[in-house]
Amino acid sequence: MGALAASAVAGGTRDRRLAKKSPPATPKNGPSDAGLQQVLDALPAAVYTTDIDGRITFYNRAAVELAGREPELGKDQWCVSWHLYGADGTPLLHDQCPMATALKTGEPVRGVELIVERPDGQRLPVLPYPTPLRDDEGRMVGAVNVLVDISERRSAESRQRALLQELNHRVKNNLQMLHALLSTARRDSRNASARAILAEAGQRVSAMATAQRVLYEADNAHSFGTQAFLEAVCDNARRSLGGEFGIELSCEAHQLSNDMAVPLALILNELLSNAVKHGLKGRRGGVVRVALTRDLAASYLLTVEDDGPGFTLRKVRKNAAGLGLVIGIARQLGGNLAVTRTPGARCAVRFVDRHR
Amino acid sequence: MANHPEVPHAAPAEPGRNGAVGPSARTRRILIVDDDYLVAVALAGSLGESGFDVVGIASSAAEALSLARAQRPQLILMDIRLAGPQDGIDAAVEIFRTLGIRCIFATAYHDPRTRARAEPASPLGWLPKPYSMEAAVATAQAAFARLGQEADRPA
What we know:
- The complex is a heterodimer.
- By secondary structure, chain A is of the alpha+beta class.
- Chain A folds into two domains: 3-149, Beta-Lactamase; 154-352, 2-Layer Sandwich (Heat Shock Protein 90), CATH 3.30.565.10.
- Chain A contains ten helices and 15 strands.
- Chain A has helices spanning 3-10, 16-21, 33-42, 61-67, 98-105, 151-188, 192-218, 226-241, 261-280, 323-332, and strands at 46-51, 56-59, 83-86, 91-92, 114-117, 123-128, 131-134, 140-149, 223-225, 245-251, 255-257, 286-294, 299-306, 336-341, 345-352.
- The longest helix of chain A is centred in the middle third of the chain and has 38 residues, at 151-188.
- Chain B is built from five helices and five strands.
- Chain B is 41% helix and 17% strand.
- Chain B has helices at residues 37-49, 61-71, 88-99, 112-118, 133-152, and strands at residues 29-33, 53-58, 75-79, 102-107, 125-128.
- Chain B has a single domain (29-150), classed as Response regulator (Rossmann fold, 3-Layer(aba) Sandwich), CATH 3.40.50.2300.
- The chains are: A alpha+beta, B alpha/beta.
- The interface between A and B is medium-sized, with 24 and 21 residues.
């Protein structure tokens, strides 16, 4: 604002009518006072100014629409609104509002959300932008405030949240149905090997479902906690595999990106299944050790160890849905599978979390 | 159970018997309430395989109430989301109030508000979705164990 315009709105005793009629002494590069009035009235955001004591000296058309009332020049103080509340709904006295703070401290206030209540009771969420005004000598003469109505933004946010929840429920229901379908198909089949294959497929789907459930419970758009995840996948595998064996779990990493959940669940489920079926072979009191550690800067190591006979990777069948799955998904995750004999089997999958 | 050929017809409970389970009960009678055909049939199969007596499958709150009244199961596996104006929690609260039968809730809505709504039904357990059939069986077994313990407690 030019010096002339600033003094015109901030002057304590001058009223709006006088300011309008003063001769249009045009600042060098800008509209006249009357022009400025038109510019301000054309803004979709509420704008008002106060003097150094917070008394309203000017307001635009949008301010009247937002506040639902005509402010009284020279009388209303701090804010054009009827009533104010904090973002959490607690009442806010006008002399405590961000505009009052800006006038007290001489600093602009940003990032505070308010709720403006109109005389008819309607409430609107609003973002204020109070900024002190200074004369040519740098003395504060008043302040200007812009009130941005953010109700559209808020309702878009809650619509998006509702959509995401709906999507989440659909995925969960679909996985539930898929698992149920495989379970029933297994029970229906009269062929023992068909039953075994369907049982395995069903178990892999339940590992995916477990991953999805952990993601939902973590309720984080980006990452999940590894401890809870590993426990859930191990728990699910233990239920499907039956038998009496122990799982020792140790977890160094804390968070991984969400899109690691399903691939890792499938890998861990497969390695656990192999460890129990081929390593422990139904032996009571057997123990499988699962560990997740950070390897190098950006990579991790998931290891599954048993104290069975061990095996050589080169010599075993790598079914596409079995060990082949582990190798393939590990590669997909930027890593690999390494098998050593300790003398039991030690399967180590290195992988990268590209989003962390 | 004319609607579901997969579920063997169960003998009706003795008149006057309520939902209490005592250590002498030989069968473990369970009612499935789920409006999803695939899930309900798989549950009936898995629970049946594991030694439970599935007395029926209901797909609405009204059906749940009438089947519970007719068959007097000891436990209900209740999906919260059901077709119709009333959900599984409504049904469970009514069933517990009038028949004293408790349930396990299966649900995708695993939040505090839902749990608070379900409290008057005195639930025996929660099955967060998606669950495996094995998890459903394990939860049912744990629920029956709890019922047995509570029946054994001295008055």
